[in-house]
């Protein structure tokens, strides 16, 4: 799988997290647990950071070391802030634990990309605003389906019965 495809998939995941966060944001605070709100906000930060990591890997593969260094720096800062914010809490979520693992890999990539850029390529590192314009749109792996209620199996029937709906052995009377 290409790095750019992985980045687009992670951006798509981020979009789903943002959609879920927006939907529960319209509810009262006592209707939704704080753990779910925290999980969604951490998920948004984490998957954006992973998308930027893969965008950095894609830029590196295309010999754009300055852009790669910029994206990996953004990913490093996001993961560091996520790990740092969860250190003060008594319980860490699964996303925060995975962010700590990813932070180590991103730190190594950051050191490598900046070293190559500072010693070999000397490419300009784009600003945060320029990097934001380079981020592609997300791509979902699967589409979100609208939930429809299943047909009623028993109880008072509401609405019209389906056409041609018949019960077993209809018309086969003795």
Structural class: mainly alpha
Q: What is the percent of helical residues? A: 55-70%
Principal-axis shape equals elongated
Strand percentage: under 5%
> If you compute it from the alpha carbons, what radius of gyration comes out, rounded to the nearest whole angstrom?
24 Å
Task: Please report the total strand number as a whole number.
Answer: 0
The span between the termini is 65 Å
Sheet with the most strands, sense and barrel status: none
Count of all domains: 1
Low-confidence stretches: none
SSE order, as H and E?
Answer: HHHHH
Supply the number of helical segments.
Answer: 5
User: What is the chains' assembly state?
Assistant: single chain
What is the mean predicted local confidence, pLDDT? Answer: 89
Structure description:
- The protein is mainly α and 174 residues long.
- It has one domain (3-133).
- Helices cover 63% and strands 0% of the residues.
- It starts with a helix and ends in a 40-residue tail after the last helix.
